[in-house]
Every structure is written in C-alpha cells, then in structure tokens.
Amino acid sequence: DAQWEAVVQKSLERYLPMKAATFIVPLCEMLDHVLNVEIKCGDASFKLSQVSNANKCNELEFDMKVEQMHLPLLAALNSDTVQMQHIDAAAYYGIMNGSMDLFFEHDGKYYILDWKSNYLGDHVEDYAPELLVEAMNENNYHLQYHIYTLAAKRFLQSRLPDFDYERDFGGVLYLFVRGIRKDSVNGVFSAKLPIEKLAQLEAVFPLQTQLQR
Question: CA-CA distance, 126 to 24, in Å (whole number)?
C-alpha cells in the first residue's frame, strides 16, 4: 500500500489529468477495500492482499477451437438464479477468443476474477448479493463465467497431469468495485460450477476432433 498513491497518481495524470488531485484519495480508499475485503468462495476464505504476485496472471487470454457451438443447449444450464441469454441458432463453428481479467492460485486452488465497474446505484446497499445476481443476469455475465470456467479447466488439464476440478479449482469471482467495503459482503459475487454442470457445458462447446489420416 505504500506504493498506491504514486501508482494511482501516475494513472490519473495519464487518463484524467484535470481531476488527478480529486480522485487520488478515494481511489486509494477503493484499493484498500477491494484488496482487504474477506472473499468467500466455496469453503475458502481469503483476501486478495494475501495472493502472491508470483501466483497471478493478468489478462490471461485463451482461444478455444470448437467443432460446434451448440448454443441452444445452454438453456438446460439455467436455473431460478442463473439465466443465460444466447443466440438462438443450431450451431456455430470456429474459434472462441476471450481474456480473463485475473487468473490466480491461492492456497492450492485456482480462481478466475473479473473486475466490474458497473454503476448499480448511489448506495453501498445497491450492491448487495441479491442485487448482484440481477446484474449478473441482466448483463449475461453468467454465460461469461461459464465459458471462462471451461477454458480454465482445459488450460489446467493441459498443464497439470493430475488436475482434479473438484479439488483444484476454487471458483469464479466478480468484484463490483464501486460497492465493495471490507466490512461487508456487498459487491462480491462468487460461484463454482458443479461438476455435472461443467460436463453439460462440455457438450455445448465440444473440442474439435483430430482428423484421422
């Protein structure tokens, strides 16, 4: 945290020079809240300030080559709280590209984190967990983290011979930074796809099969 003010000031001078003096203090306060809020994901509980720099990767980009994208099958993954919108078409072919804001390992588990600056209201209570679910549905973020999870699972399987999804994957975090306070649960959305849902997702985005010669 000793470096925060200098880093924030440098960024503000680049992107918002006329307002730099106004935003230095509130942005440093935001960093304090975001990095020191207690994050609960499954059985795990930790703070981002505890994550080592050596164990994280910013903007992890991925390409998934799929034989067919069976998008209508996504409907089977919806529930009362998870509603994914998709294109109503039989199938798509090609390569899917994406980028995870932050991919990291902590305490033996791997996590995906997505930063969200969405404005949901003027009050911290506007970022309560039940309202975050609505924001996730409205913006189709559930579909996003389903795809991210599948990409991460395939990536980890390719790197770790004994990778076990249930044991080694911690989950997905969506941090709505405007509403995060380190003494509350507001602004933090976490989820982990059940293994059976992940199997269904594999059918939606099957890997391209190797041609036989």
Answer: 24
Which amino acid appears at position 84 of this protein?
A: M
* Residue 157 near residue 207 (C-beta atoms within 8 A): no
- Please tell me the distance from the alpha carbon of residue 111 to that of residue 189, in angstroms, as a whole number: 13
* Distance, C-alpha 15 to centroid of its chain: 25
pLDDT 10s digits, 41-60: 988 999 999 999 999 999 99
pTM: 0.87
Separation CA 109–CA 17 (nearest Å): 40
Query: Active-site positions?
Result: 114
Give SS3 for 198. Answer: helix
The residue assigned the tokens 């506007």 is: 126
Give the tokens for residue 120. Answer: 């949901």
